[in-house]
Amino acid sequence: MTSKTAPMQTRTTPTKTTPIPTKSTITPETTTTMPTKTAITPENNTSMQKKTTITSETTTPMPTKTAVTLEKTTPMPTKTTVTPEKTTPILTKTTPVPTKTTISITPEKSTPIPTKSTPVVSGIEFLQEKWNVWYRTLDVNHDGIITRADVDYTLKQFPLVEGLSKSEGKMAVDKIEAWWEKYILKGNNKITKTDLLKDQEKEYTENKKNFVAKMKALCEDIFCILYTDKTKMISLDNFVKAYKVYGHDNEALLRKAFELYKPSHGVVPLQEFIDDWLLFLTNDDQSKIDVVYETYKAGLV
């Protein structure tokens, strides 16, 4: 009996169990091959232990599979990082939008608008332009210079145009001559356009209030002389006769000029007419309506 038990010990103790873990490390990808089936065949109880070890070996690949799953989930953050890169150009596209709005800023377009509405001349220059027009009216004989000859023409024409008697004519003539001397000639025998413009500018710049008061008196004095019917109203007939005294006898044009004053029932109040002329001689704001200046620009006077 002793001689039979000795070989059994030598068969169970061999180191053949060492390759089993080696195979188990290779098999996680397939989990088959089952080399343990050859080892399971022995009838001894030791084979049972091998089965239990196989069970633990077969469970070993499961974490390996879960590890593979983690590798697959790892690219997901990578994909999410791609999404911010796509959104970045969107912000870049929105950036030019304010750039376009700043380029097309309306102030650049509104800048020419005030330029167009701004008068070519303003202030004293605008007044000089109107005084230049007025000078042509005072140059009764249209020879380019105001002299005593212009005064004499008005003194002769006024009684004739108005149909005044000799005594009435004499009184009117004296007033007209005084007006020329006080406001225009001022002791001189002739007045050039340069002289008149310089004189007007000097008085305007030194004391505008006094200048306006003087021009108001100038308008009131002459129009109260020229319009002799004492009605305080100016009719078309009055208007035409007054300009004829100053050498303007184109009646067709004068009729058109009178319409610019917008007469009511064919007449314009004398004070309104005086105010219009005062505006013409003293106003330096071109934005204001200037009826007298409009008649000259239209070539009606």
From TrEMBL:
Keywords: Calcium. InterPro entries: EF-hand-dom_pair (IPR011992), EF_Hand_1_Ca_BS (IPR018247). Residues 10-42, 89-107 have a biased composition (Low complexity). Residues 1-43, 89-116 are annotated as: Disordered. This is Sarcoplasmic calcium-binding protein. It comes from Mytilus coruscus (Sea mussel).
